[in-house]
Design goal:
By secondary structure, this protein is of the alpha+beta class. It is built from four helices and three strands. The longest helix has 20 residues. The N and C termini lie far apart (39 Å).
Length: 113
């Protein structure tokens, strides 16, 4: 039996649970319309498909897809600029040792299927 952790293993149960909580908080923040960025347009048409926290829970990647034909790259750039709003809301709603920094990326899995 090896004492070393398998680096190819999937996310832990805690990562999955925290990822779901982060996803709900980010979606609620988007729905509430708390963001005041000119490039965001209609944020109600953005959907957070998945949030993957890092093993140390200090960073998380949120994957976003647009339901409209809006420029997803501009929306991702604007979301990354406004990530402090999400981090503040996460810190308010979750009790964790560290509030994860959120990085937004486009979800390409829908385009590939």
């Amino acid at each position: 039996m090896s004492r070393h952790k398998n680096t190819q293993a999937g996310p832990s149960q805690r990562q999955l649970r925290v990822g779901e909580q982060l996803k709900h908080i980010i979606a609620e923040t988007l729905q509430r319309g708390s963001l005041q960025h000119p490039d965001l347009g209609n944020v109600a048409m953005l959907t957070v498909t998945e949030v993957r926290p890092s093993p140390d829970m200090r960073q998380a990647t949120a994957y976003v897809v647009s339901l409209l034909d809006q420029d997803i790259q501009a929306a991702i750039h604007a979301l990354n600029e406004e990530s402090h709003v999400f981090q503040k809301e996460i810190g308010r709603q979750m009790s964790m040792k560290f509030t994860p920094r959120i990085a937004f990326k486009p979800d390409d899995s829908f385009e590939n299927s």
